[in-house]
Amino acid sequence: MMGHDIELYESLALWVGLAVLFFFIGMAIQDVLKKGQVPLFGRVFVWIVLFAGCAGFIAKGVIQFFYETQGLG
């Protein structure tokens, strides 16, 4: 295998691993909210904060991608 192929596989594994990690974090939060009998307002607030964190992380990746492809990074 060439070095470029290995970098591609490592990058793909990183992003898939992070997606799986976010999924499991969401499932754990859902379980805690159900067992803690959190009111609807609290649940909505928790999910908004979780989504905002994920969206910020994704936005950072997209911005970094465009920054690097333009030859600035």
UniProtKB/TrEMBL annotation:
Cross-referenced InterPro entries: DUF2788
Membrane-crossing segments per the record: 12-33, 45-67
Keywords: Membrane, Transmembrane, Transmembrane helix
Top-level taxonomic group: Bacteria
Protein name in the entry: DUF2788 domain-containing protein
